[in-house]
Design goal:
- The protein is built from 6 helices and 7 strands.
- Strands 2-4-5-7-6 form a 5-stranded mixed beta sheet. The chain has a two-stranded antiparallel ribbon with strand order 1-3.
- The radius of gyration is 19 Å and the shape is globular.
Length: 228
C-alpha cells in the first residue's frame, strides 16, 4: 500500500507551499455549499410547483420531491456536522451512530457501503477519518460497487481501512494530491481536493498517517491514528 501522507500541515507540499487556513476554510465552505445546493434547489422547485395554479395536477409529485430532497439535505447536514465540524463537545462516538451518518450519504450514491467496524468506540479524529474516507470511497465508484469500511483498535492505534470495489473504480489525482498534503494540481477543481487535504491535516495533527492505493477496479484508503 502506498503511503501518501508525507508533508505535515506546516511544511511545503511536494507541489508548492501549503495553502493558508483562510483559503482552506473558503474551499471547505464552497464544497459544502455545492453539496447542499442541489437538494435545496429541488425543495424550492417543489414549492414553486405547489404555488403554480397551472401545475396542480403535479401536486403529488411536488410533495414527493420536497420530502425526498428534505431527507437528503438533513442526512447531508448531519454527516457534515461530524465529518467536517466539531460536533458540539463530543470526544468519542458510537460506531453505530457513525454508520447511520455514512449510510445516509450512501443512500444518495450509486455505491453500497458495508460497515464492518470492530472498535467499540472511536475518538473524534478517528470518527472524522472514517466518515471522510467512506465518502471518498463512494466517490471512487462512479458506476456503483461496494465500499467496505473496517476499523479496529490495534495496540495503541486505531486502524481504519476502506476498500472501494467496482467497475471503473479510480483514485482521482486531486484526491491523491490532497491526501499527500500537496496543493491542488493545475486544471482541477478544489471540491474533491479540499476534503482529502482536510483529512491530511487532521490526521497529521493527530500524529497519524493516511494511505491510498489504486488497483484495477479497486481503490483502498487507510489511516492509522493513535488511539484516543
Amino acid at each position: 500500500m502506498t503511503d501518501v501522507s508525507l508533508p505535515t500541515a506546516s511544511e511545503p507540499g511536494a507541489s508548492g507551499a501549503s495553502p493558508g487556513a483562510a483559503q482552506i476554510a473558503a474551499y471547505l465552505a464552497a464544497r459544502m455549499c455545492h453539496d447542499f445546493i442541489s437538494p435545496v434547489s429541488a425543495i424550492v422547485s417543489g414549492l414553486d410547483l405547489l404555488e403554480d395554479p397551472d401545475a396542480q395536477d403535479m401536486r403529488e409529485d411536488a410533495m414527493g420531491l420536497i420530502a425526498a430532497s428534505g431527507r437528503k439535505l438533513a442526512e447531508m447536514l448531519a454527516f457534515t456536522r461530524v465529518a467536517f465540524g466539531a460536533s458540539a463537545s463530543a470526544e468519542t462516538f458510537d460506531p453505530r451512530d457513525l454508520e447511520a451518518l455514512a449510510q445516509g450519504i450512501f443512500r444518495h450514491q450509486r455505491a453500497d457501503l458495508e460497515w464492518a467496524v470492530e472498535a467499540p468506540s472511536l475518538d473524534k479524529a478517528a470518527a472524522r477519518t472514517a466518515l471522510n474516507l467512506a465518502q471518498l470511497a463512494g466517490a471512487a465508484l462512479p458506476l456503483g460497487g461496494k465500499a467496505r469500511l473496517q476499523a479496529v483498535h490495534d495496540g495503541g492505534a486505531t486502524v481504519i481501512a476502506v476498500e472501494a470495489v467496482g467497475p471503473k473504480a479510480r483514485l482521482r489525482p486531486d484526491i491523491a494530491a490532497g491526501l499527500a498534503g500537496e496543493k491542488l494540481p493545475d486544471g482541477l477543481m478544489h471540491g474533491h481536493w479540499v476534503q482529502a487535504y482536510y483529512v491530511h491535516l487532521f490526521v497529521t495533527e493527530a500524529s497519524g498517517r493516511v494511505f491510498a492505493e489504486a488497483d484495477e477496479e479497486k481503490v483502498t484508503f487507510a489511516a492509522t491514528l493513535p488511539a484516543g
